[in-house]
Amino acid sequence: MSISHVIRGLLYVRPVDNVMFHCGRGLLHVRPVDSVMFHCGRGLLQVRPVDSVMFHCGRGLLQVRPVDSVMFHCGRGLLQVRPVDNVMFHCGRGLLQVRPVDNVMFHCGRGLLQVRPVDNVMFHCGRGLLQVRPVDNVMFHCGRGLLQVRPVDNVMFHCGRGLLQVRPVDNVMFHCGRGLLQVRPVDNVMFHCGRGLLQVRPVDNVMFHCGRGLLQVRPVDNVMFHCGRGLLQVRPVDNVMFHCGRGLLQVRPVDNVMFHCGRGLLQVRPVDNVMFHCGRGLLQVRPVDNVMFHCGRGLLQVRPVDNVMFHCGRGLLQVRPVDNVMFHCGRGLLQVRPVDNVMFHCGRGLLQVRPVDNVMFHCGRGLLQVRPVDNVMFHCGRGLLQVRPVDNVMFHCGRGLLQVRPVDNVMFHCGRGLLQVRPVDNVMFHCGRGLLQVRPVDNVMFHCGRGLLQVRPVDNVMFHCGRGLLQVRPVDNVMFHCGRGLLQVRPVDNVMFHCGRGLLQVRPVDNVMFHCGRGLLQVRPVDNVMFHCGRGLLQVRPVDNVMFHCGRGLLQVRPVDNVMFHCGRGLLQVRPVDNVMFHCGRGLLQVRPVDNVMFHCGRGLLQVRPVDNVMFHCGRGLLQVRPVDNVMFHCGRGLLQVRPVDNVMFHCGRGLLQVRPVDNVMFHCGRGLLQVRPVDNVMFHCGRGLLQVRPVDNVMFHCGRGLLQVRPVDNVMFHCGRGLL
């Protein structure tokens, strides 16, 4: 490996597998190498026969062909990913990179992050310290406390001055106050947002506490959430408990999650469910695997059923021998009998689900019912929603009526229009005076204006938020339109999102397209999921990609399983590749036969060919990717998690990140120090600190006056300041 120049010069990398970064006006080339090139100025970056991702934060151009990686850039820095299946995150002006390593470190303060022979992710948002020893976990600290992870595979989160520890357990601990979080021989996650204490013993769960209460998890695999002064406990059960008030949450031999946002009490017995309570009511889950949500003074109960209950008013939600989810946002009542469904009620109406597996949503004074069908009904007005022998979901936000016959779909109506679903498995959304229909197709239609949404022999979902029209033909996809544009989905299994006046199309592809401007989004033969470009939350389940567009640009996905992101007026495209593209400016993003993720924060161009990855994020929301090799985070104030992934380490403050005999990546965007020993990783430093890489195959980055060194290793060194590489 040879480096010719450091500032304004030129960098070459011959028979080596590395990545070159240049933050000036120079040029960076990488030939027969597996790397990623970054340019933050007016120069040009190219990567040929290499497995990498290219990022450009200026007016330059970035291209990445045969590479498998993901790159993230949230500021003026850069992000890189080499022949590795990981995600890089940067919340400042620094950069983030992930090479052949299975870990991610996060530090947002002056603390220290370390990862030894373990594949984990460490998060620190304060002045505390994060450490990960022979364990595969992720540690999060948002205060001045300390986070440690020993022989355990978990994630620790601390947002206050408390201390988070994880012993021989595979879990994640979250602490947002002055309390203490501990995880012993258990695989769980603990969350504490107050002065309380969170503990997890021989259990695989996650505990959340947002008040002065105490959260404990014994021989159980669950997650506990407490946002008040109450107490959360989880015994031999695999569940998650949420408490946002002064109540108490308990989970016995059950695998569930409990949520309580008021003074009520949430309990989960031999059941695998999640309970949510946002008022003074009570939530209980007996021998059932479900989730209960209560946002008012009502009561939510789930008996021998696997469901989720949501209550946002004074009503009552009950779920008997059924696997469903109930939502109530008013004074109505939601009940689910021998059915596997979800009920939503936002008004004074009533929602019921009998021998059916569906979800009902009611946002007005209407009534929602689901008989022998597996569907979900949504009503936001005074209309009525019914679902007969069909497996679908209906949404109504006005005075219209939603019906679903022998079809498996979901209908959404937000105006005075009417939504119907015949022998089709789909979901229809209408937010205006238009009409939504779904024929012999399995899809979901969304309309938020006066337009019309139709779904023919296709399995998709259409979203329209303006006066445009949404159509779905022989395709399995979802279309979203938030402007006056038009959304179409042909023989493809995808989801399209349009938030402007542009147009969204999905051809023979299984993907998701997002457009938040006047641009156009297209998705061809690809299987993916798209998300949101605002302050909401984005998730990606068994899907290969997500496409995001936050400007007037265009997003396209051809025979590829990827995700495209555009935050400006640029264009995003994904061809026969499994990747994710990100654009935060007026530039263009493309992905060809590659499984990677491309990020562009300027007016440049990003391309990624044969690569497989996932990218994130365009707002303050949260993005998650499960059946994927990684999860990338973050561009806002949200939170990002990485589950079945080989983690990434991030540091956005003055702390220190270290990685010992492990395959990880260390990131430091402040004045701290990053070190990587006998490991295949990448070290990043955007301040005055020092980065070193010993007998390892990694990449070192330094954007300040510090020093970067690379010994007998095949890597790439980056220096964007007056330092030395």
Written overview of the protein:
It is a single chain. With 725 residues, the chain is mainly beta. Among the domains are: 10-106 and 647-719, no CATH class; 139-253, no CATH class; 492-625, no CATH class. Helix content is 0%, strand content 37%. The strands form 7 sheets. The protein has a 37-stranded parallel β-sheet, with no helix packed on it. The protein has a 20-stranded parallel β-sheet that branches. It has a 7-stranded parallel β-sheet with strand order 2-4-6-67-65-63-61, with no helix packed on it.
Oligomer: single chain
Structural class: mainly beta
Q: State the low-pLDDT regions, or none.
A: 1-725
**Total helix count?**
0
pLDDT averaged over residues? 30
Number of strands: 77
Q: Gyration radius, to the nearest Å?
A: 25 Å
Shape: globular
Through-space gap between termini:
12 Å
Percent helix: under 10%
Report the major sheet: 37 strands, parallel
Beta percentage is 35-45%
Properties at a glance:
725 residues, mainly beta, 37-stranded parallel β-sheet
Q: What would a concise description of this structure say?
A:
This protein is mainly β and 725 residues long. Helices cover 0% and strands 37% of the residues.
Note the topology.
Layout: E1 10-11, E2 20-22, E3 27-30, E4 37-39, E5 44-47, E6 55-56, E7 61-64, E8 79-81, E9 96-98, E10 104-107, E11 112-115, E12 121-124, E13 129-132, E14 138-141, E15 146-149, E16 155-158, E17 163-166, E18 172-175, E19 180-183, E20 189-192, E21 197-200, E22 206-209, E23 214-217, E24 223-226, E25 231-234, E26 240-243, E27 248-251, E28 257-258, E29 265-268, E30 274-275, E31 282-285, E32 291-292, E33 299-302, E34 308-309, E35 316-319, E36 325-328, E37 333-336, E38 342-345, E39 350-353, E40 359-362, E41 367-370, E42 376-379, E43 384-387, E44 393-394, E45 402-404, E46 410-411, E47 419-421, E48 427-428, E49 436-438, E50 444-445, E51 453-455, E52 460-462, E53 470-472, E54 477-479, E55 487-489, E56 495-498, E57 503-506, E58 512-515, E59 520-523, E60 538-540, E61 548-549, E62 555-557, E63 563-566, E64 571-574, E65 580-583, E66 588-591, E67 597-600, E68 605-608, E69 623-625, E70 656-659, E71 665-668, E72 674-676, E73 682-685, E74 690-693, E75 699-702, E76 707-710, E77 716-719
Parallel strand pairs: 1-3, 2-4, 3-5, 4-6, 5-7, 6-67, 7-68, 8-9, 10-12, 11-13, 11-70, 12-14, 13-15, 14-16, 15-17, 16-18, 16-20, 17-19, 18-20, 18-22, 19-21, 20-22, 20-24, 21-23, 22-24, 22-26, 23-25, 24-26, 24-28, 25-27, 26-30, 27-29, 28-32, 29-31, 30-34, 31-33, 32-36, 33-35, 34-38, 35-37, ...
